[in-house]
Design brief:
Blueprint: H1 3-6, H2 21-63, H3 66-87, H4 90-101, H5 105-140, H6 145-174, H7 178-202, H8 206-231, H9 240-274, H10 277-286, H11 294-310, H12 314-341, H13 343-347, H14 358-383, H15 390-407, H16 413-423, H17 425-441
């Protein structure tokens, strides 16, 4: 893709004088001509990436004993927990600030270096808190001391690589480097699948399974660093003004990061504490079904949201917001219909030890839809640094969950999945309400960046 194409934002419509009806159709045609081929290419390659990831995941599900798969599920869950807590709004701030400075190599370099410093500080605090919980959960579910130590080391290695990668990946998305994004994702997925495939013939357990994920992270990190060295000023000085704005976003979002961290991993934590090792494995295996929904969310995060963050027209922000949300809901509903129609056939992919989970499989699909819609709404809002006030979201969810704890059987797979579904409702409702409120409060005039002036 040519440079001029890759760095072009969505076309804006002037908000001061709406065009007559006769000119509205020609306006839409250039947008469709530009974005449909991009989305089609990205979706096709992303489909291959997700298929490779799904294949690796299915190999892991089918070949790990339930005990080992429970350890794998816990390790992956805590890895995601560290990554989320160590972010605490940094990515949201990068998207919001980067939408104003993305075409200036020096300012973008300053933004990356400032964010890296803050993320390192948050990562240290997060690791000190999460690692003891990881050790406790593994030991609670029967992991030996050596198994626990190896899993912790692998999780920390993956954390170190992915925390840096996620900072620099924002630059790729802001510059709409679609091919580079896809090349990295494709290579990481291929390497992960290759590691799993080779390990099946040599030695395979939970540690090796998580190590395959970490090696994929390492490949992506190496490729991204090569691109960054050529396209970003890595020696750019840290910017105090940018640091202040990032910290401002962290203060608003860190309560949400803790909240989403707890909510996103709560099903595994609850079943780990109240259920059995078998049920931990069941929940983790059913979670593979959620991968069916990730291709749609990947298109949104990697292609659409960076362009959404660059829009400065209030009218266009409103229009794109509803297009993104409604399109995603339609695609998710279609996938849900397929799972409801063919639960037995879909579960057969996971292997015979999970074949009796048909009703739970449907519940997992519903849970995945609620989680991904809530995540999409959060990501759309975060791209504009619209943070739902924590004093609204967190109490509403906690009150609902207290009621759910009293009426649901949290030692069963069905119980924790219903808990997950109902718990997602406050986030979805409040995210929509807050986005609509902020969109209609947007000023007509576009803000001007003050960095480097």
């Amino acid at each position: 893709m040519a440079c001029t194409e890759s760095q072009t934002a969505l076309v804006d419509v002037p908000v001061t004088s709406p065009p007559p009806i006769a000119t509205e159709i020609p306006f839409g045609i250039p947008v469709l001509r530009k974005w449909l081929p991009i989305l089609a290419r990205f979706t096709f390659v992303q489909g291959i990436v997700q298929a490779l990831g799904f294949a690796a995941g299915i190999l892991i599900v089918r070949h790990l004993p339930k005990r080992e798969y429970a350890f794998y599920t816990i390790g992956n869950t805590m890895l995601a927990t560290i990554l989320m807590l160590a972010d605490s709004g940094i990515s949201s701030a990068l998207s919001a600030i980067g939408g104003r400075v993305w075409n200036d190599i020096g300012r973008l370099g300053s933004l990356m270096n400032t964010a890296l410093q803050l993320r390192r500080q948050l990562a240290i605090l997060t690791v000190l808190f999460v690692v003891p919980v990881l050790v406790w959960l593994l030991r609670q579910n029967g992991a030996h001391l050596l198994e626990t130590a190896l899993l912790v080391i692998v999780v920390l290695a993956g954390t170190g690589l992915e925390l840096i990668t996620r900072i620099y990946s924002v630059a790729l998305r802001l510059k709409s480097q679609i091919r580079q994004i896809q090349n990295q994702a494709l290579m990481a997925a291929l390497v992960k699948l290759a590691v799993v495939g080779v390990a099946l013939f040599i030695f395979f357990n939970a540690t090796v399974a998580i190590l395959s994920v970490v090696i994929g992270y390492a490949v992506q990190f190496w490729m991204l660093r090569r691109w960054i060295d050529r396209n970003i000023d890595r020696d750019a000085p840290k910017d105090p003004a940018m640091r202040s704005e990032i910290i401002s976003v962290i203060r608003k979002q860190s309560p949400h990061s803790i909240y989403f961290c707890l909510q996103g991993q709560l099903t595994v934590w609850l079943i780990s504490i109240f259920g059995s090792t078998d049920n931990v494995a069941n929940v983790g295996a059913l979670g593979r079904l959620a991968l069916l929904f990730t291709i749609v969310s990947s298109v949104s995060v990697e292609v659409i949201l960076p362009a959404f963050s660059r829009i400065q027209s209030a009218q266009q922000v409103r229009k794109r917001f509803f297009q993104i949300v409604f399109s995603y809901c339609a695609m998710s509903t279609l996938l849900m219909g397929v799972i409801i129609a063919f639960p037995k056939q879909i579960l057969s992919i996971l292997g015979s030890q999970y074949a009796n989970l048909q009703s739970e499989g449907i519940l997992m699909a519903v849970s995945a839809i609620f989680a991904t819609i809530g995540g999409l709404l959060w990501a759309v809002n975060a791209a504009r640094a619209w943070i739902v006030p924590p004093h609204l979201l967190i109490p509403c969810t906690i009150i609902l969950q207290v009621v759910l704890v009293m009426i649901l059987d949290l030692s069963s797979v069905r119980g924790v999945l219903l808990f997950s579904i109902y718990s997602g409702l406050p986030s979805i409702v409040l995210s929509i309400w807050f986005a609509v409120r902020r969109m209609w409060e947007m000023p007509v005039a576009a803000p001007v960046s003050s960095y480097g002036a």
